[in-house]
Amino acid sequence: MHTITHAVLMGLAGFGVFVVGYYALISVGYLFLHVLALFELREDVKESRWDPPFRKFSSPFYPGIGIVVPAYNEEATIVESVRSMLSLNYPETEVVVVNDGSTDATLDRLREQFDLEAIDAEIPFDIPAEEIHGVYRSTTDEKLLVVDKENGGKSDALNAGIWLTDMPLFCAVDADTIIDRDALLQIVTPFLKEPTTAVASGGVIRVANDCTVEDGIVTDVSLPKTGFPGLQVMEYLRAFYSGRLGLNRINGLILISGAFGLFQTEAVREIGGYRHDTITEDFDIVVRLHKHLTEQDREYTVDFVPEPVAWTEVPSSRRVLSRQRRRWYRGMMETVVTNRKMLFNRAYGRVGTLVMPFFVAAETLGPLIEGLGYVVLPVAWYFGALDVTFVLMFFLLTTGYGVFLSWFGVFSEVWSFNRYDSPWQVLRLLWYGVLENFGYRQWKTIVAWRGLIEYVRGVDSWGVMERSGFAGEEE
After folding, report:
1. Which of 355, 400, 424, 443 would you call most buried, defined as having the most Cβ atoms within 10 angstroms of its Cβ?
2. What are the phi and psi torsion angles at 301 (to 5°)?
3. Which of 285, 255, 275, 92 is nearest to 185 (CA)?
4. How far is it, in rounded angstroms, from Cα 222 to Cα 457?
5. What is the DSSP letter of 440?
6. Reported pTM
7. Residues 374 and 442 sit within 8 Å (Cβ to Cβ)
8. Which DSSP state fits 92?
9. Is 359 helix (H, G, I), strand (E, B) or coil?
10. pLDDT tens, position by position, 220-250
11. Using CA atoms, how far apart are residues 188 and 53, in angstroms rounded to an integer?
């Protein structure tokens, strides 16, 4: 009995040391990314101030962009979202809204607001999407094309839009998204600088909850008054202004948000479009582009541009947020497992040898190990297997270092494009940076474990995103 007890205590101690060491290495990796992000952000800020994106005399040379909007039961936000896209400052656009078998009034709202008329569109026979019932063009704005199809999921809807647009680039945008007026002129920059090699670029996603939207424009930027949306503001700031900027510095961007990303149309068609058997199509499509183009030995770039902004409504309840994050985690696991041959594979360059392994360690395994650490380390200390120093070090590396990274994101926001320009908003952001690491962070590790269990069980449901609509939207 004594031997068994000793073995258990040794196991607890060994796991505790492993967790602390693991998070020490992860913290070093994050610090490296954040330092790289600062250098990248400094260059982007300088460029944005001295090189305005829109020059009307050269505007005919901008490549055409098809804005593909998959819409399933989006009646609360679809009109304001489409208005926003139709009013964007860009020489040549086509807004392709794909009604993916909605059971609410999404299509009716579009008909009422934009006076749709059925057209005889040529539908490609090899389109990787469910049956298309009809294609409509707005009689009030010819830039708007609406596709009505059988429900097939977001990937299926995106494919329908991609195969029906004639534009050389397409912008994948969620139906609950409001895009800043000049955002397309900014996000297209990589395609203007490197027209032969650029295949994708992503912009910044910000939280629209409690912001005022009028005629498709965010007229008043406000921080959410409720808890969960406010905490997500911090997550988005940190993810975009630190993580993705840092990865962009080393040409290792593997994730472009599905809410706002620009792609070369032919490159995505070449790999068969978006996969139907994934629930995180935004992550999957970028990884597949890296994989395919590397295997083809083609020179290419995938870029992140920190100036263009799209605003999206985020979950405001714990139930809906948990459902969203479990889906994200299942999709992340699915993409990593599907593309596991890229891990530590020098044939895929720094994406295979550096970026993917770090992503798996930090984002896939990190929350699981952290969640176990919150339980095992205090137990190991209580039974005398570990010194209290290890427990304190673990909490310092997770919660304490998490506050530092959150404040780093706030600093990057204030220093650069400063959308939250009120001192009170900045103070609230700093406070949210503290709050998210005490309770919310720990809750997310539980959500990650639930996501893993669902992945192992084969759960593939999307889940319903409940929306209240944008503030200021007309009823």
Report:
1. 355
2. -135, 140
3. 92
4. 40
5. I
6. 0.90
7. yes
8. S
9. helix
10. 888 887 689 999 998 988 888 778 888 998 9
11. 9
